[in-house]
Amino acid sequence: MITQSPHYKWILVVVLFVVSAVNYADRTALSSVLTLLRSDLKLTDVQLGLVASAFFWVYALGIVVAGFVADRVSRSRLVVVSLFLWSLVTLATGYVHSFTGLMIARVALGAAECLYIPAALALIADHHGPDTRGGAISSNLAGMSLGLIAGGTLAGYIGQNWGWRTAFHWLGWIGIAASVVVAFLVRDAAQPKTGAKVEQEALSIPTSLGLLLRTRSYYMILLQGMLTSAGVQMFFSWLPLYYQETYHMSLAGAGFSGTFMLQATALLGVILGGIASDRVVRNAPQRRALVMAVFYLAAAPFLLVFLIQPSFLVLGVGIAIFSLFRSFGQANENLILVDLLPAKLRSSALGIFLFCCNAPGSVAVVLAGWIKGEAGLNVAFASVSGLIALAACAALAAYYWIPGDYQRLEARLAGAKQNSVVPATGSA
After folding, report:
1. What's the CATH number of domain 2-188+198-419, 3.40.800.20, 1.20.1250.20, 2.40.128.90, 1.20.1300.10?
2. Whole-model pTM?
3. Which residues of 60-74 are buried (b: 16+ CB within 10 A; e: fewer)?
């Protein structure tokens, strides 16, 4: 069986690369057909912003719960269930006929997709040690970038030629078929065969929270994630429409340009960032935070190009360089968490982290819709430079705090294990 292969840990990476691509394709498809939705359902710009943000609000709230769940049940089963559910919702989205129906569909999509990433990233970390973890996790993040490109382009092309409903039907059926195949290809990491009983137990939720909330560098990683995600979500949700209105592009062209210039370079940056991070870290895991800070500082100035209202080519180059540097640095954020935290805390920590990333992102999407009417999207996009610079400062603080936090966390974990009473039913 393929799951018994000595190379299974890399087979898992390939499988989850594809699933992550489907995940992000389904969530981003909406942004490429906003014009069609606005016309068909008679929506205002504010309603478009609410529809786009509804997903992120539910996703952000649900992912905290999903993280704690993934530390206590089978992570592989959670991956399959999430894939099936969000694909079913994507299919159903093609049948809505009102603003209310569209809002319900986006809420349901957020609830279904939130189960996936904490389980998937922790599952990869379970199968990979520190020497290969950077390349493995960054490959999964690259799948997300590929999904953003494919989802935006495919939805825009299908929507332009056959209608936006057909785009969601196709994406939904692709995901449902994939869930059947993936069910046979993912499995949890083997439990340790030796060790005390306490090693086979998951920490209680209050204990997990207590350990995380007393780790200073964890706060800094949360902060940088909030700052970068707020800016990036502005781009994902509004850049295709910006291209349509500014450069008078077709839906397919705007969907491609609005995702490709961000995500093609992001895909390259996240892969190189993860691999390079494995080389730089060696026995000093805090170096991942230093790499993050350096590349954030390098990325920040390039978005100021929006202030001069440049040509399509100049703007594309600025966005591409920003995305490359930003993703090179951001490739380290999940790696910092899984290096710093023991397996029993990883999904929980990732769930809280992703909540903190998505909550500001949902506000930023609506805020960008308001700024669009008041000052233009140029101003909203240029302001992201300041957010990225502040994120670099947070990463530098984490760099100085990680060594001490790691030692204190180990000592606290040793004491907490003796009081843990929650049995683990999956890989933890």
Report:
1. 1.20.1250.20
2. 0.70
3. bbbbbebbbbbbbbb
